[in-house]
Amino acid sequence: MRPIEIKTLSGLIDKAKGKAYSLVRNGIAMANNRVPSMDEMTSYLGLTIDDEFVASLCAGCKYKGWPFVKRRYLMSRSRGFEIRYGPERVVETIFLNCFGRNGYAQFAGKLPKGIKFGDPPDRVRAALGKPTSSGPPTPGVQGDSGGWDRYDNPHHRVHFSYSEDGGLDLIMLMLARAKSRKVPKAR
After folding, report:
1. Cα(54)–Cα(41) distance, rounded to whole angstroms?
2. What is the pLDDT of residue 33?
3. Which residue intervals of the chain bear CATH 3.30.1450.10?
4. What angle do CA 72, 146, 99 make, to 5 degrees?
5. Residue 7: how many CB atoms within 10 A of its CB?
6. Residue ranges of the alpha helices (H) in the chain?
7. Cα-trace Rg, the chain
8. Taking a C-beta distance cutoff of 8 angstroms, is the pair 32, 16 a contact?
9. Long-range CB pairs of 147-150, under 8 A, 24+ apart, other chains included
10. Phi and psi for 63 in degrees, rounded to 5?
């Protein structure tokens, strides 16, 4: 059964489809067909999915959710991102994927300070400075991890995940208040 909440979002998406105007909020303009930069995506954290700005971004996104789980997802595999929101319909986490990760195209928006997917941790750290926290490579059920770096800001956190071969393959933008899962320690 499809949740009622999607009808509201669909209405906003239908209004946004086909309009060639740009939405502007906090000095950021976004054309309907342009993939925003990572910095612009960060500005969506804390907005509701019913916000016209978010709804325009999510036009054509696939919905994923289950009745017994509080978190819901809006996915755009072709544009390389996924948005997670909670029961209050507030955008909590945005996942930016590299090419081929879980069937996603690579996120086409601009990443900050010249970093690129596939960059090793030392390249990311050289561009962004010392991370707030880091984790070592760990073996996992769904494949080995090449470690991670996290940068904390008052409004949000940016989590960089590295693949087994050490290249950047996932960026998670999270509200500062959102709980992050603990990464199990290697044994």
Report:
1. 9
2. 56
3. 111-176
4. 55
5. 9
6. 5-16, 38-42, 52-57, 121-128
7. 17
8. yes
9. 147/121, 148/183, 149/121, 149/124, 149/125, 150/180
10. -90, 140
CATH number 3.20.20.140 given to 111-176: no
| Ordered per-residue pLDDT tens for the chain, 187 residues | 233 233 334 333 334 433 333 344 444 444 455 678 999 989 889 998 888 878 877 777 777 766 666 778 888 888 888 889 888 889 999 999 887 777 788 998 999 999 999 999 999 999 999 999 988 877 665 556 788 999 999 889 999 999 888 899 999 999 987 554 444 444 4
Q: Look-up: residue for tokens 């090419």?
A: 99
| CA nearest to 147, candidates 167, 126, 132 | 167
What residues does 127 pair with on adjacent strands? none
55 within 8 A of 12, measured Cβ to Cβ: yes
Amino acid, single-letter form, for residue 7: K
Beta strand pairing call for 168-175 and 156-162: antiparallel
Please answer whether residues 35 and 77 qualify as being in contact, where contact means their C-beta atoms are separated by less than 8 angstroms. no
For the chain, helix, strand, coil in percent to 5 are: 20, 30, 50
Predicted pLDDT at 6: 32
pTM here? 0.74
Judging by DSSP bridges, how do beta strands 22-25 and 62-64 pair with one another?
unpaired
